[in-house]
Amino acid sequence: LTEDETTLVQDLVSQRWQAKKDRDFDGADQIRDDLYSRYDVAINDILKLWSVGGAFGAEGGPTGKQVGTYTRRGGLGELTEDDVE
């Protein structure tokens, strides 16, 4: 993306976040779909990241945990597979 396109994408992502906050889920979905069709931008709401092509990598954002690793609420420890089942 060019610098101008990156700025536009970030603005649209912010508008989408506001639409979700306002419970305008149809509007938020429309912005998500437009970003994907126009710029091949995927949004990961859990990690709060957007990416061209949807490559978010194996790391789970700022915590550094791998995607799919469960952590107790409040970060008090790791859950085992037995805990999850």
Give a brief outline of the structure.
The chain is mainly alpha-helical. The protein has helices at residues 3-21, 25-39, 81-84, and strands at 41-44, 49-52.
Q: Would you give an account of this structure?
A:
By secondary structure, this protein is mainly α. It contains three helices and two strands. The protein has helices spanning 3-21, 25-39, 81-84; strands spanning 41-44, 49-52. It has a two-stranded antiparallel ribbon. The longest helix is centred in the first third of the chain and has 19 residues, at 3-21. The protein is globular and about 50 Å long. The termini are far apart.
Q: Characteristics of this structure?
A:
2 strands; two-stranded antiparallel sheet; mainly alpha; 85 residues; single chain; 3 helices
Architecture blueprint of SSEs:
Blueprint: H1 3-21, H2 25-39, E1 41-44, E2 49-52, H3 81-84
Antiparallel strand pairs: 1-2
Discrete helix count: 3
Kindly report the average pLDDT value: 75
| Rg over alpha carbons | 16 Å
Question: What is the first-to-last residue Cα distance?
Answer: 43 Å
What amount of the residues lies in strands? 5-15%
Read across the widest sheet, the strand sequence of neighbours is 1-2
Structural class: mainly alpha
Number of strands: 2
Judging from the principal axes of the Cα atoms, what is the shape? globular
- Largest sheet, strands/sense/barrel: 2 strands, antiparallel
Order of helices and strands: HHEEH
Low-confidence stretches: 60-77
Helical content stands at 40-55%
Classify the oligomer. Answer: single chain
